[in-house]
Amino acid sequence: xxxxxxxxxxxxxxxxxxxxxxxxxxxxxxxxxxxxxxxxxxxxxxxxxxxxxxxxxxxxxxxxxxxxxxxxxxxxxxxxxxxxxxxxxxxxxxxxxxxxxxxxxxxxxxxxxxxxxxxxxxxxxxxxxxxxxxxxxxxxxxxxxxxxxxxxxxxxxxxxxxxxxxxxxxxxxxxxxxxxxxxxxxxxxxxxxxxxxxxxxxxxxxxxxxxxxxxxx
Length: 217
Prior knowledge:
With 217 residues, the protein is an alpha/beta fold. The chain has one domain: Rossmann fold. The protein is 30% helix and 22% strand. Strands 1-3-2-6-7-8-9 form a 7-stranded mixed beta sheet. A two-stranded antiparallel ribbon has the order 4-5. The chain is globular and about 55 Å long. The chain starts with 12 loop residues before the first strand and ends in a 5-residue tail after the last helix. Pfam families: FSH1 (PF03959). InterPro entries: AB_hydrolase_fold, FSH-like_dom.
């Protein structure tokens, strides 16, 4: 007989910049499958400054990428016990948000960005919580198909939504993109598409372009 238990859990996240009175923009960025936050956050070092804070949570499950030793990566979830994993990481991400962003206690511009597997992760945070944000960026990933359609449509209404990917991305097939378009229609969202010459990766030039964009009023 399967049973459940709740307990306190300690998790880490990375910061670029220092939260303070000068901060007026925050990017919450979620890495992809097999990555670690301390390396992923470096992709955004060119846009971090005294006014823009970068926050990179880390997937709650770490594992050896090959065999039983060597490089370690993290993942947000697997298909096993997925509902529980989703609940746990939403609670974790919400806790990071409350610890870093809410104490600033001032109007902020907030970008949620998810890369690859992190795109589904950040999409759930955006649509399944009431946490304020202004811009949602799905990078080399798509909306997960199980988002609550009515709640998600309401949460994404009037939000800036970007879909970013490399033209040579080996993981975004025509079928995958068709799935993305179908889910977006169901959610009544039309993401602005930004492409670049590259593969399944974060492109620093595009990061800078997005950072330079004015937020939607």
